[in-house]
Amino acid sequence: MPSDSRPHPGAALLRDAGADDAGPLTRLFLASRAAAMPYLARVHSDEATLAWMTHVVLPGTDVWVAELGREDGGTEIAGFLSLDGEELEHLYLDPEVRRRGIGTLLLAKAKERSPDGLALYAFQRNTGARAFYERHGFTAVEFSDGSRNEEKEPDVRYRWTASG
What we know:
The protein is an alpha+beta fold. It has four helices and seven strands, in the order βααβββαβαββ. It has a domain at 3-115: Aminopeptidase.
């Protein structure tokens, strides 16, 4: 990233993810899930999760990374978003940077890219994520018993449309 496009210390910038981001995004994904959902079953090894990020998520969806500027002039990945058309597949944040507007910035990018609407699944017990999406205009449209996901964790389907 050119130096003139680096965020100021503490500020966040979005950029397209690249293949080199697979490792950092995998680590962030695993840390975020462990912090936000400690009850969630681990169904894949770290190595399998990295392979999934490398060969499925990055090449198969539109992925944006939120980077925070550091005091030393560098950057650190603070979160990421994965979008497949109107399906918001993933939105994860570094547990250390929650409640700083980064999730809102990433979600705004998803809404910009899919202005006619978005849909997503969240685990029913993930009350933090559910509250976040509801604050941003998403409505729960279906609850399920978890039989559709690998973790077998009851989930909820959300939808957002620009018209409300």
